[in-house]
């Protein structure tokens, strides 16, 4: 994909900042129709966000012992505030992906259109399409998405993060040296070429490397990584990219692009733009990962998302010194719309926010 330099720059800037999740405006909810008040907002979420579950589920969950994993909890809560939710959407592409009709008609990042050939090649090389036997066979799994926000620093949440069955990390977020605050376990690391860890020694010993493809070129890049070939050119990327990913093909996955599509067009309500990438219609990787977890985990928590309004001079990311005041408006993302979505999830108890940055003082 070719982009104008100014757009390249903004895309780069934005994704550097994306995971800090500066949320500056609080959500306004618009009502449908003229005069008569709908029960739903524009995206199809109930305006009343208490997330009340059907009685039999309340009993079922109420009877579980404290702290036990609640089967189907995240999806049930989600359905309670967003009746259109349907759980079925596999985490990663597998050889049956063409049967998953929702992604066939969209180009990347929202689908697989015109990429079928390279995806087939990639999938026949990786040969693995799940989280691994142990996790896949669990009847109930808890997941945490660890965002990169400075709000994670100095909270000593590491041990509690490691207690989750699935720990999801994003892009280059380091673990080594930060274990006390961010934990030491990484089940999957979701990234794209420009966001991936570049120094091979910085990869953790074990984790699945998951590509979230934002453009066709990202899949081509993955082919170089999977087949361990030398990347000859980096034309078309908006900043430098990883040139080697120290992972076996069987530890590499392709994230189902449906989560980008659903997060953007349905859950957040970003412009459809004829199904193509355009101004302000790309969700951040954090929102994509949360959407993935709603479909694939029984309980979902997040940490390191959002921003503490009372500390503007605090670091943007937990691992570097850029301050939050450095953040700028972005071309690709719509952080304020995205915040409205995440606030709904936290308010209704669909996800637990362990660092409290999504709502701040606000919900
Ligand atoms: C939960 O416990 C109550 C009281 O012990 C019992 O009456 C009820 O049947 C249980 N519900 C389920 C779904 O197990
Ligand atoms: C965390 O604590 C260290 C050492 O006390 C301090 O230097 C750093 O600024 C703190 N980070 C944040 C985000 O508060
Ligand atoms: C974000 O969405 C709001 C509301 O739809 C819109 O007014 C604003 O221009 C959008 N921002 C970007 C960067 O697209
Ligand atoms: C935000 O910062 C203030 C001041 O340092 C602190 O008291 C508060 O606990 C922080 N809130 C969160 C959610 O970290």
Automatic annotation (TrEMBL):
It is found in: Golgi apparatus membrane; Golgi apparatus, Golgi stack membrane. Disulfide bonds join 143-297. It is an enzyme of class 2 (transferase). InterPro entries: Glyco_trans_29, Glycosyltransferase_29, GT29-like_sf, Sialyl_trans. Keywords: Disulfide bond, Glycoprotein, Glycosyltransferase, Golgi apparatus, Membrane, Signal-anchor, Transferase, Transmembrane, Transmembrane helix. It is a single-pass type II membrane protein. GO terms for cellular component: Golgi cisterna membrane; Golgi membrane. Its EC number is 2.4.3.6. It catalyses: a beta-D-galactosyl-(1->4)-N-acetyl-beta-D-glucosaminyl derivative + CMP-N-acetyl-beta-neuraminate = an N-acetyl-alpha-neuraminyl-(2->3)-beta-D-galactosyl-(1->4)-N-acetyl-beta-D-glucosaminyl derivative + CMP + H(+). GO terms for molecular function: N-acetyllactosaminide alpha-2,3-sialyltransferase activity. Pathway: Protein modification; protein glycosylation. Catalyzes the formation of the NeuAc-alpha-2,3-Gal-beta-1,4-GlcNAc-, NeuAc-alpha-2,3-Gal-beta-1,3-GlcNAc- and NeuAc-alpha-2,3-Gal-beta-1,3-GalNAc- sequences found in terminal carbohydrate groups of glycoproteins and glycolipids. The highest activity is toward Gal-beta-1,3-GlcNAc and the lowest toward Gal-beta-1,3-GalNAc. PANTHER family: CMP-N-ACETYLNEURAMINATE-BETA-1,4-GALACTOSIDE ALPHA-2,3-SIALYLTRANSFERASE, SIALYLTRANSFERASE. Belongs to the glycosyltransferase 29 family. This is CMP-N-acetylneuraminate-beta-1,4-galactoside alpha-2,3-sialyltransferase. It comes from Collichthys lucidus.
């Amino acid at each position: 994909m070719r982009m104008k330099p100014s757009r390249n720059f903004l895309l780069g800037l934005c994704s550097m900042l994306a995971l800090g999740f500066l949320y500056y405006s609080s959500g306004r909810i618009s009502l449908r129709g003229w005069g008569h008040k709908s029960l739903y907002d524009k995206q199809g979420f109930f305006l009343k966000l208490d997330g009340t579950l059907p009685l039999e589920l309340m009993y079922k969950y109420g009877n579980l012992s404290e702290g036990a994993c609640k089967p189907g909890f995240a999806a049930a809560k989600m359905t309670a505030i967003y009746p259109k939710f349907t759980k079925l959407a596999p985490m990663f592409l597998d050889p049956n992906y063409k049967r998953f009709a929702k992604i066939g008609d969209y180009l990347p990042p929202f689908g697989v259109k015109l990429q079928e050939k390279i995806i087939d090649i990639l999938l026949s090389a990786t040969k693995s399409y799940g989280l691994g036997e142990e996790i896949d066979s669990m009847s109930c799994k808890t997941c945490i998405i660890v965002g990169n926000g400075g709000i994670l620093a100095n909270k000593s949440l590491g041990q509690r993060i490691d207690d989750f069955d699935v720990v999801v990390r994003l892009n280059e977020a380091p673990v080594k040296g930060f274990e006390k605050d961010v934990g030491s376990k990484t089940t999957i690391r979701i990234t794209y070429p420009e966001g991936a860890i570049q120094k091979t020694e910085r990869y953790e010993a074990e984790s699945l490397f998951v590509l979230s493809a934002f453009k066709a070129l990202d899949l081509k890049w993955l082919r170089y990584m999977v087949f361990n070939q030398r990347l000859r050119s980096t034309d078309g990327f908006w900043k430098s990219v990883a040139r080697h990913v120290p992972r076996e093909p069987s530890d590499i996955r392709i994230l189902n692009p449906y989560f980008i599509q659903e997060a953007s067009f349905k859950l957040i309500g970003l412009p459809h733009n004829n199904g193509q990438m355009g101004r302000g219609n790309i969700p951040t990787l954090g929102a994509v990962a949360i959407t993935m977890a709603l479909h694939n985990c029984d309980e979902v928590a997040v940490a390191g998302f959002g921003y503490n309004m009372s500390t503007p001079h605090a670091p943007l990311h937990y691992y570097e010194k850029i301050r939050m005041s450095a953040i700028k408006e972005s071309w690709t993302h719509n952080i304020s719309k995205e915040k409205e979505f995440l606030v709904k999830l936290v308010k209704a108890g669909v996800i637990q926010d362990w660092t409290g940055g999504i709502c701040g003082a606000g919900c």
